[in-house]
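Reply to dn_fold:

You asked what the input looked like. This is it:
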Amino acid sequence: MDKTQTVAALVAAILIVLDYATGLAKGAAAHDIDSGKMRQGLWHKATYLVVASLAIILEIGQKHIDMGFNVPLFIPVCVYIIATELASILENLIQINPELADSPILDLFHTDHDRKDAS
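and this is what came back:
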């Protein structure tokens, strides 16, 4: 893996852990910690790791085998995981602290596209 791939994997992994932690905090704040939900969440996180592993394996394979395609896969997979985990973390934080929903701090996470849609 090159440096960009390593950083993308690291950011995705950290956000996966933060999402799990904020989900646990959300459950604790609501007095609703459910081991079934926790297991399901871990399985969902595990599938992200499998998809990312498949992407890197195929990228390495493309360098040595003519697979009929040669496209970057790992970075787009990591970006998708990062975006998904970020949205989930923000949702968890809003459920823990509903005042954040109208806070200007969350505006930092909105894209220009989001702002145009809100207008």
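The chain has a mean pLDDT of 91.
Hope that clears it up.
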